[in-house]
Amino acid sequence: MATNLAVATLVVGAGVALVWTGFTNPEDGLISEIGKVLRGEETSASKRGGIRGIGAEGSATGVQQIRDAGGSVSAGSGGGGGGGGTAQVSATGDRGRVVAEARRHLGKRYVWGAKGPNSFDCSGLVQYVYGRAVGKSVPAPSQTQALRGVAVSESAAQPGDLVCYGRPAWHIGIYLGGGQLLHAANPSKGVVIEPVGWNAGRYYRNILGRSAEA
Known about the structure:
CATH class of the largest domain: Alpha Beta
Shape: globular
Number of helices: 5
Number of domains: 2
Oligomer: single chain
CATH architecture of the largest domain: Alpha-Beta Complex
Number of strands: 11
Strand order of the largest sheet: 6-11-7-8-9-10
Distance between the termini: 54 Å
Helix content: 10-25%
CATH superfamily of the largest domain: endopeptidase domain like (from Nostoc punctiforme)
């Protein structure tokens, strides 16, 4: 039986902020709803005014709302895999194929639930790229993708590894090396390359294995 609860919660971290107020019963579950807000997407509760949030890029209005509520907002910084630079990192073998395939989709639209080839959500892009590039099955959603393979440290992360955010993961993308992430960001950005950012809760998974480096 559906239950509506009055909620007033402030969540600050990972370079984003979320204020959840009012009466709402999220259709897709709390984790899914929070993930949508953090990515700047429309939520099942937004039409009822239940959720307000700012995506990873932030906004002056959203930041002021959080500060007024007594919170603080920290901007996500670059970094990862040996530093926050933007230099191109060469990749060969399966890793090179994954990176090349991912780059082919730059500029395409973000659509929630889309699995390609003309539009994607974050897990849909990961699923499509690995399937096309190396024939590897990495089924969505991001929560299950972030459990695949083995954990690697940020300093050991290589091009083609997964960059995951949150446990369970609410966002995921493909590491390019040099502190850069290729991902289906949100409806306003689409598929883009950005610094990995969102420092809190960021981690990496190697789903290609050692042989992929050859």
